[in-house]
């Protein structure tokens, strides 16, 4: 089987809800990162076999195969196809997985994978305004429980004995680490500026410098009157997009490109849909088993910060080194543009691996409905 390699990875800055990216249509935001890949690599877009694009709320601006709209908005040749995939929050990580799998299988030679979400323009949950998505069979199986991620996060915190103070400490740490990374220019090589209203937007704008446990303690619980989950220890509603160019080592050489990393191993797994956010734990176990690696071999872990209990429960169950977890901060600090987050997370993973010369990196995402992706990549340069 052939190897799949990543030759470049780019993302927009992450915009806060109603912020700098709010005026930009999802297709146009996606087109910006597609064309950035072309500008940076010199690849002829007409030679791209497929664009695999993640997006969660596929309604309104993000309906009708937004990946295909992105290709057209970018001005790429009409013969370049695209598909939009939805594995909830892991959609663009799934897009990277599918792109790599197709390259490894010999189906494609050159693929762009990534995703987008403009939550300012397409509100969270707006695709569920009518109907019952689960159906009577699912509701009967779970005694009519109405699945809710916030309640799932509360249940996880209770199960692992995670106090509000502990969750808020983690959240404040996310902001501090993200601020340090931004100040050190860690993301500069991957961020594609986006101009709106004549202003060039270059930095993740959700960051709240100086966030402390004391300031977070003043926030009211979001899901239970006596709960521990609130806006400050949850991921932010955001806008953003990211894209990666995936190919074979041989094709990269033909194009005069030096691969950054090899797609090593991927896995998906399911978990209880009531708690729903625990999928990264079995997904991590599965990907490590398939890879033949141990957690000790992995230099950095990116576990998406959908809610603070998710990475903390993952740490408790895996026994991983806390110092290797989300060293650049995460979605609590800078945002979680759903369908774009998996690809954004991979740009962050690559940035850390290259900066510290770490051979292996692992990322995993919890996903609505109780599934999760886990991916291991290997640094090549």
TrEMBL record:
Family, per entry: Belongs to the thiolase-like superfamily. Thiolase family.
Keywords from the named record: Acyltransferase, Transferase
Domain Thiolase N-terminal span(s) in chain numbering: 5-248
GO molecular function: acetyl-CoA C-acyltransferase activity
Residues passing through the membrane, by range: none
Keyword Transferase tagged: yes
Annotated catalytic residues: 89, 336, 366
Lineage: Bacteria, Bacillati, Actinomycetota, Actinomycetes, Kitasatosporales
Origin superkingdom: Bacteria
Classification via PANTHER family: ACETYL-COA C-ACYLTRANSFERASE, BLR7806 PROTEIN
The protein, known as: Thiolase family protein
Organism: Streptomyces asoensis
Annotated ranges, domain Thiolase C-terminal: 258-378
NCBIfam families per record: AcCoA-C-Actrans
């Amino acid at each position: 089987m052939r190897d799949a390699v990543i030759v470049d990875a780019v993302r927009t800055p992450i915009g806060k809800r109603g912020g700098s990216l709010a005026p930009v249509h999802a297709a146009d935001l996606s087109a910006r990162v597609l064309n950035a890949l072309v500008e940076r690599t010199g690849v002829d877009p007409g030679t791209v076999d497929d664009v695999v694009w993640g997006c969660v709320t596929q309604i309104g601006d993000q309906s009708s195969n937004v990946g295909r709209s992105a290709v057209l908005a970018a001005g790429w040749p009409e013969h370049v196809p695209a598909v939009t995939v939805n594995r909830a929050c892991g959609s663009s990580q799934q897009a990277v997985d599918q792109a790599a799998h197709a390259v490894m299988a010999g189906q494609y030679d050159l693929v762009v994978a990534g995703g987008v979400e403009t939550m300012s323009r397409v509100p969270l949950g707006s695709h569920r305004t009518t109907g019952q998505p689960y159906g009577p069979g699912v509701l009967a199986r779970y005694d009519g429980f109405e699945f809710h991620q916030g309640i799932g996060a509360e249940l996880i915190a209770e199960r692992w004995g995670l106090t509000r103070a502990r969750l808020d400490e983690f959240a404040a740490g996310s902001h501090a680490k993200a601020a340090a990374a931004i100040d050190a220019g860690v993301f500069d090589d991957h961020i594609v500026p986006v101009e709106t209203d004549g202003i060039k937007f270059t930095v993740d704008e959700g960051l709240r410098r100086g966030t402390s446990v004391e300031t977070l303690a003043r926030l009211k619980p979001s899901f239970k009157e006596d709960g521990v989950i609130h806006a400050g220890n949850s991921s932010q509603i955001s806008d953003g997009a990211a894209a990666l160019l995936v190919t074979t080592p041989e094709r990269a050489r033909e194009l005069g490109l030096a691969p950054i990393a090899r797609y090593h191993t991927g896995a998906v797994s399911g978990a209880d849909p009531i708690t729903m956010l625990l999928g990264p734990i079995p997904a991590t176990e599965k990907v490590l088993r398939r890879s033949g690696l141990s957690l000790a071999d992995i230099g950095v872990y990116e576990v998406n910060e959908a809610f603070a209990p998710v990475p903390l429960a993952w740490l408790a169950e895996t026994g991983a080194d806390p110092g290797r977890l989300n060293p650049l901060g995460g979605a609590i600090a800078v945002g979680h543009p759903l369908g774009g987050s998996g690809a954004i997370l991979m740009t962050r993973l690559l940035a850390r691996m290259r900066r510290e010369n770490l051979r292996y990196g692992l990322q995993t995402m919890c996903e609505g409905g109780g599934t999760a992706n886990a991916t291991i990549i290997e640094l090549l340069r």
